[in-house]
DNA sequence: TATTCGTGGGG
DNA sequence: TCCCCAAGAAT
């Protein structure tokens, strides 16, 4: 028993969101633009993505342009958006697609490309190529769980929910408009079937929603309890050369903030650093100013960083081991959010925390 | 199956 | 203030 696809599509025709990566009704979107937006939108809000999306399209109007760019430039343009493996995979995927002469049109072929998983493959197939598949993201998961009153907790219930969701497009109306149907599900989840306080009264699917009829829609999907976020500590050193440059090094190519630039600093460990201990990791022996601390919350741990700042006396950079990095203008670097906070902290008065 | 992997905004 | 979460993928 599937809900009324026609009702959802009528609602979508009136209420659909206008977004920069969406083509006008009846027009085929550029697969490159669809792919780019889908990668950026993974675990990221529409509001946060829009500016980045526009900047990428300006710098790289085609997949070939992106494929030919140095990874460093891509990371610089991605800096601040988070989940930097996406940027590395974006670059690798652009090269593959460029070699192939474009993006493949089937789910199975799309799945072989870096950074494209079960959701994104179906999103691209449906939106860019009109394949009748249902991309199951957080929105569709929530809509489905409520529609069928599925009370088993995530993430264990994920595959069962996806199985149900795969049939949402069974109606002929949905089969005829795969791109609109997929995006209608997104918009329904984003504007009506919201995580908290869903607007069931105006929902085009309210009459067939079991969660609504049982009065439990807002409580779905049930989620398993999360575990506590550990705390880590570190110290970083903002060293300027007096010519507008900052000492920066590149993090290892994989893992946390992989490939991004950072000021040299200590390891991030579970115990606090004594000042003397932290200073022993400084790139240069000088009078370091304690600029206070920066707190940054990652998905799986909270980080407290002490920021030290100093300006290099003229003509002393020869004594700095190159493992600490090179002096570069910060504007040209690929700086993560937490490292931007450190540089900002170095410029502030300590008391203004 | 469970972890790792960012960041900013909203309630 | 704190907690939740957002068009998930890779390992």
From TrEMBL:
Chain's role: Adenine glycosylase active on G-A mispairs. MutY also corrects error-prone DNA synthesis past GO lesions which are due to the oxidatively damaged form of guanine: 7,8-dihydro-8-oxoguanine (8-oxo-dGTP).
Catalytic activity: Hydrolyzes free adenine bases from 7,8-dihydro-8-oxoguanine:adenine mismatched double-stranded DNA, leaving an apurinic site
UniProt similarity note: Belongs to the Nth/MutY family.
Record's protein name: Adenine DNA glycosylase
Cofactor binding description: Binds 1 [4Fe-4S] cluster.
Keyword DNA damage in record: yes
EC assignment: 3.2.2.31
Domain of life: Bacteria
Family annotation (InterPro entries): A/G_AdeGlyc_MutY (IPR005760), DNA_glycosylase (IPR011257), Endonuclease-III-like_CS2 (IPR004036), HhH-GPD_domain (IPR003265), HhH_base_excis_C (IPR023170), HhH_motif (IPR000445), MIG/MutY (IPR044298), MutY_C (IPR029119)
Annotated source species: Gluconobacter morbifer G707
Gene Ontology MF terms in the entry: 4 iron, 4 sulfur cluster binding; 8-oxo-7,8-dihydroguanine DNA N-glycosylase activity; adenine/guanine mispair binding; lyase activity; metal ion binding; oxidized purine DNA binding; purine-specific mismatch base pair DNA N-glycosylase activity
Cross-referenced PROSITE patterns: ENDONUCLEASE_III_2
Span of domain HhH-GPD: 40-191
Signal peptide: none
Keywords: 4Fe-4S, DNA damage, DNA repair, Glycosidase, Hydrolase, Iron, Iron-sulfur, Lyase, Metal-binding
Enzyme class: hydrolase
One Pfam family matching this protein: HHH
Gene Ontology BP term (one): mismatch repair
Cofactor(s) in the UniProt record: [4Fe-4S] cluster
């Amino acid at each position: 028993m599937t809900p009324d696809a026609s009702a959802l599509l009528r609602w979508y025709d009136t209420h659909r969101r206008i977004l920069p990566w969406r083509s006008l009704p009846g027009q085929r979107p550029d697969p490159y633009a669809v792919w780019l937006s889908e990668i950026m939108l993974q675990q990221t809000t529409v509001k946060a993505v829009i500016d980045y999306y526009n900047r990428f399209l300006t710098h790289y109007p085609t997949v070939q342009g992106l494929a030919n760019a140095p990874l460093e430039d891509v990371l610089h343009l991605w800096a601040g958006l988070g989940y930097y493996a996406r940027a590395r995979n974006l670059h690798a995927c652009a090269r593959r697609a460029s070699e192939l002469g474009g993006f493949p049109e089937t789910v199975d072929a799309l799945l072989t490309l870096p950074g494209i998983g079960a959701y994104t493959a179906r999103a691209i197939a449906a939106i860019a190529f009109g394949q009748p598949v249902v991309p199951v993201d957080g929105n569709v998961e929530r809509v489905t769980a409520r529609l069928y009153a599925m009370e088993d907790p995530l993430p264990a219930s994920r595959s069962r929910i996806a199985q149900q969701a795969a049939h949402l497009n069974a109606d002929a109306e949905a089969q005829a408009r795969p791109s609109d149907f997929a995006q209608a599900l997104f918009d329904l989840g984003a504007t009506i079937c919201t995580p908290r306080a869903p607007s069931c009264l105006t929902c085009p699917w309210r009459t067939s929603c079991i969660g609504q009829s049982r009065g439990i829609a807002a409580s779905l999907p049930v989620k398993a309890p999360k575990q506590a976020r550990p705390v880590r500590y570190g110290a970083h050193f903002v060293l300027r050369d007096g010519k507008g440059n900052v000492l920066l090094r590149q993090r290892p190519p994989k893992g946390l903030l992989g490939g991004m630039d950072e000021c040299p600093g200590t390891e991030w460990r579970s115990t606090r650093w004594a000042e003397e201990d932290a200073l022993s990791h400084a790139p240069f022996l000088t009078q370091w100013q304690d600029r206070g601390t920066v707190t940054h919350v990652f998905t799986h741990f909270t980080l407290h960083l002490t920021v030290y700042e100093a300006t290099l006396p003229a003509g002393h950079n020869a004594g700095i081991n190159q493992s600490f990095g090179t002096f570069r203008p910060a504007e040209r670097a690929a700086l993560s959010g937490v490292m931007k906070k450190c540089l900002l902290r170095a410029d502030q008065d300590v008391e203004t925390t």
